[in-house]
């Protein structure tokens, strides 16, 4: 099953694309803590899934971080992930690419791109800024089978 399909099923089931609400609904604990240079990571402790988010990251970035780590929780539930750092956002590691793709598909639904092409002054760049998605990850977005 594709990442986009997983995301679409999740959004439909939970009625939202907010990673914080989805995580809460799934019983995933979210912890805000000082992580220094790290943005966040996912772990499982005594069968309790936990998303760790750097409390010092800005709110918009925390949204993306949560989406990324939720991607790990759903796609790699039994793998404790390494720290997500600013310089590792663009990792070539398969698990990190999958988590980034999950976050991009979750936070930037297709209809956002289709609507913005019609009557709105809201641009793709407005969307990624609002959702905390790094512009460099926009290439992971797939709309109607095509990369942006």
UniProtKB/TrEMBL annotation:
<feature type="domain" description="IrrE N-terminal-like">
    <location>
        <begin position="23"/>
        <end position="120"/>
    </location>
</feature>
<dbReference type="InterPro" id="IPR010359">
    <property type="entry name" value="IrrE_HExxH"/>
</dbReference>
<protein>
    <submittedName>
        <fullName>ImmA/IrrE family metallo-endopeptidase</fullName>
    </submittedName>
</protein>
<dbReference type="Pfam" id="PF06114">
    <property type="entry name" value="Peptidase_M78"/>
</dbReference>
<dbReference type="InterPro" id="IPR052345">
    <property type="entry name" value="Rad_response_metalloprotease"/>
</dbReference>
